[in-house]
Amino acid sequence: MRPVKDNVKLVLPEDFDDAWLADITAREYFPEAIVSDVSGNRYRLFFITSLRLSQELKITIEKGIQNWFSEPGLVVVDEIDLNTIRRAINGLWEEGYFNSLLPIKQ
User: Fold this and answer.
1) How far apart, in whole angstroms, are the C-alpha atoms of residue 36 and residue 57?
2) What is the longest distance spanned by two Cα atoms in the chain?
3) Sequence-ordered alpha helix ranges (H) in the chain
4) CB 45 within 8 A of CB 33
5) What would the mean pLDDT of 21-50 be, rounded to a whole number?
6) Can you tell me the mean pLDDT for 1-20?
7) Which letter, b or e, does each residue of 72-86 get, where b requires 16 or more Cβ atoms within 10 Å of its Cβ?
8) What span, in angstroms and rounded, lies between the C-alpha atoms of 80 and 100?
9) Exposed/middle/buried for 29, CB within 10 Å: 0-12, 13-18, 19+?
10) Where are the domains of the chain?
11) N or C end: fewer C-beta atoms under 10 angstroms in the chain?
């Protein structure tokens, strides 16, 4: 059996740099995470902290837009940084999370 890290990996946008990392860390969400598995399937995940999630929900309710918040592939984490995101991806792989997602079209 392959180690988790060999089965799934985070694929960052080509222009991802320190400024982008600082931005997603400060905003507490990363809606453009792409995960690639050993078979070449790719999945889009939306990482967000619980604090930012509660803020987004509050804003949508206050504006009368809706009384809920959802995003495909939503994953709530304690903080937004690459180590946390990679650990979450590995844990999600071990749980079989990606079995319930449709791969994105390439």
Assistant:
1) 29
2) 50
3) 4-7, 18-27, 50-62, 82-95
4) yes
5) 96
6) 83
7) ebebebeebeeebbb
8) 24
9) buried
10) 4-100
11) N
pLDDT in tens, 38-82: 999 999 999 999 999 999 999 999 999 899 989 999 999 999 999
Ramachandran quadrant class, 28 (left: phi over 0; alpha: psi -120 to 50; beta: rest): left
| CA 101/CA 87 separation, integer angstroms | 19
CB within 8 A of 5, min separation 6: which ones?
A: 90
Distance from C-alpha of 17 to C-alpha of 69, rounded to nearest angstrom: 29
Instruction: Taking the CA atoms of 90, 102, 59 and 82 in sequence, report the sign of the dihedral they define.
Output: positive
What is the length of the chain?
106
